[in-house]
Write a structure and sequence with these properties.
162 residues, alpha/beta, Glutaredoxin, five-stranded mixed β-sheet, two-stranded antiparallel ribbon, 6 helices, 35% helix, oxidoreductase, Thioredoxin-like_sf, redox-active center, antioxidant
Length: 162
């Protein structure tokens, strides 16, 4: 896995959502910036708290024009059950082969060999505007902290010379 940096072109991917429909990054970017939220797994206590906090603050992210996609190596069926139980307004994408996880966040021992908890904001131009990878999998960026970081990253991009 090559280490991605802010300004790099985001690796393209297509993964199925909880309904089995394919979601392609480049097509999603046509509607605005995309926040990729990598997390170890559905129904775990920390991941559930994390994603529910984003659900509860989702309108704040939308106010920035940011779309959110959650990505783990769980199956389509498990994502469907997790989404139905917690009413997530954003899509969860299934990456059971961990190809996209490896291209972005990677896996680690602290997450039981599953995806690192990580955040990648992809600007509408397809370039990475914000990256944060948690060092310890039991921690996650709270909705307020994540919102502030995204707002700052988007402001920097808006002020950058074209």
């Amino acid at each position: 896995m090559a280490k991605l940096e802010v300004g790099d072109r985001a690796p393209e991917f297509e993964l199925p959502d909880a309904s089995g429909r394919p979601v392609r990054l480049s097509q999603t970017l046509e509607r605005g910036p995309v926040l990729l939220v990598f997390y170890p797994g559905d129904f775990s206590p920390v991941c559930t708290r994390q994603l529910c906090s984003y659900r509860d603050s989702y309108e704040r992210f939308v106010s920035l024009g940011v779309q959110m996609l959650g990505i783990s190596d769980d199956t389509i069926d498990k994502h469907r059950r997790f989404t139905e139980e917690h009413h997530f307004p954003f899509s969860l994408l299934a990456d059971p082969q961990r190809e996209v996880i490896d291209a972005y966040a990677g896996t680690g021992m602290m997450s039981g060999g599953r995806a690192h908890r990580a955040y990648f904001l992809v600007g509408q131009d397809g370039r990475l505007a914000y990256i944060f990878v948690e060092k310890v999998s039991v921690f996650y960026r709270g909705a307020d902290e994540l919102f502030d970081a995204l707002r700052a990253a988007l402001q920097v991009r808006a002020q950058a010379p074209k």
